[in-house]
């Protein structure tokens, strides 16, 4: 089938290649002319046969909103727009309403797989009306991993991004657990080869996983991670997961703690720890370290 793909960065570019390998026609647009097949959104839409399917793979927020608004003026009734970026699920209903007023379908799709998706396939979680999903199904089938799993119609509009958000929240907590375990092993005098301990866990243990495999890969590249600064950014989905938990009165202590740990990583000289040190000195006479 034909697909218009907007946004050809690391994920979008690899998705275009995987779809083409599967025999689909993909016409891509990107603001970088070196990556694009066409020079404008209008040229992309005009190059597709109806009913058109256009997949948006641009940063969440204003960029996605502006792209969908532009497509609303260019597409025809019966066409479908897929938002495959990391949009907040609450934006999806607004986009569906905007497009629906012009009889254009909308599907939200959470995509996981990163830079490995080209070869391994992408895990897909999508939401929308069955008739709109059906128009995109050949694309989903080509992008997903081989086998019966890896793609799910999670529910109505918004369900795909909500499921991907929860997936990323779980990922936060799992990464934090591996990081804490690694630091403790590194700190213990009795453990002389932390990297091989991690490698050994890849077989037979209950914590074996792709994240563990990636941790071993990172340690193979830099055994003690000495080239890295202890700073971790967050994409926003961890925050949205915690906010959704509050809205639904669902306790998420591990995911919330993992998010806050990311915030702590950005403080070279933690103001909170200054107060902790001062209080320990006041009540117990514990030594403090003076600022330079």
Automatic annotation (TrEMBL):
GO terms for biological process: D-gluconate metabolic process; pentose-phosphate shunt. GO terms for molecular function: NADP binding; phosphogluconate dehydrogenase (decarboxylating) activity. The active site is at 164. Keywords: Gluconate utilization, Oxidoreductase. It holds the Pfam family 6PGD. InterPro entries: 6-PGluconate_DH-like_C_sf (IPR008927), 6DGDH_YqeC (IPR004849), 6PGD_dom2 (IPR013328), 6PGDH_C (IPR006114), 6PGDH_NADP-bd (IPR006115), HIBADH-related (IPR015815), NAD(P)-bd_dom_sf (IPR036291), Pgluconate_DH (IPR006183). Residues 160-287 form the 6-phosphogluconate dehydrogenase C-terminal domain. It comes from the Bacteria. Signal peptide: none annotated. Belongs to the HIBADH-related family. PANTHER family: 6-PHOSPHOGLUCONATE DEHYDROGENASE (PTHR11811). This is 6-phosphogluconate dehydrogenase.
């Amino acid at each position: 089938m034909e697909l218009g793909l907007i946004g050809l960065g690391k994920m979008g570019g690899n998705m275009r290649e995987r779809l083409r390998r599967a025999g689909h026609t993909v016409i891509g647009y990107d603001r970088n002319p070196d990556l694009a097949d066409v020079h404008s959104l209008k040229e992309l839409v005009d190059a597709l046969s109806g009913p058109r399917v256009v997949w948006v793979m641009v940063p969440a927020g204003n960029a996605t909103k502006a792209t969908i608004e532009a497509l609303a003026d260019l597409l025809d009734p019966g066409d479908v727009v897929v938002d495959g970026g990391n949009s907040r699920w609450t934006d999806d209903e607004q986009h569906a309403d905007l497009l629906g007023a012009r009889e254009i379908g909308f599907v939200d799709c959470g995509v996981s797989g990163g830079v490995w998706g080209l070869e391994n396939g992408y895990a897909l979680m999508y939401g929308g009306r069955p008739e709109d999903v059906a128009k995109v199904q050949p694309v989903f089938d080509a992008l997903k991993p081989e086998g019966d799993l890896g793609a799910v119609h999670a529910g109505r509009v918004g369900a795909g991004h909500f499921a991907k958000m929860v997936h990323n929240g779980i990922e936060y907590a799992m990464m934090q657990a591996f990081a804490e375990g690694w630091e403790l092993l590194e700190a213990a005098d009795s453990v002389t080869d932390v990297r091989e301990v991690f490698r050994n866990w890849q077989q037979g243990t209950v914590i074996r996983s792709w994240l563990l495999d990636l941790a071993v890969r990172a340690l193979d590249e830099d055994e003690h991670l000495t080239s890295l600064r202890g700073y971790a950014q967050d994409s926003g989905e961890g925050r949205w997961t915690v906010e959704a938990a509050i809205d639904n009165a669902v306790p998420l202590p591990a995911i919330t703690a993992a998010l806050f740990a990311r915030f702590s990583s950005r403080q070279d000289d933690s103001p909170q720890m200054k107060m902790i040190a001062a209080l320990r000195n006041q009540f117990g006479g514990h030594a403090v370290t003076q600022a330079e």
